[in-house]
Amino acid sequence: MKHLAAYLLLALAGNESPSAADIKAVLSSVGIDADSERLDKVVAELQGKDLQELIAEGSSKLASVPSGGAGAAAGGAAAAGGAAEAAPAEEKEEEKEESDDDMGFGLFD
Q: Is residue 93 in some structural domain?
């Protein structure tokens, strides 16, 4: 993923066809060692292809993937109405826990 991200950064910066050396330079600038096998594969797969088309194609594929998050959001909204009274008590408990976590030492003391 890091190799692809570096490739996309270079492409967005104006380098139409980033080389393996270009990608290695970007990754090494932030202290990441490039895996030459994966790097060569990324460069070979993306060479000569229009990135905008690839991104659009990938987005359409992701749109067809079902995600299970919608059901949980609806259930959480229904439960929120009954739990409104218990919220202040929970906040007080959290404050006690936070003071115990730092064991009397503050970050900036």
A: no
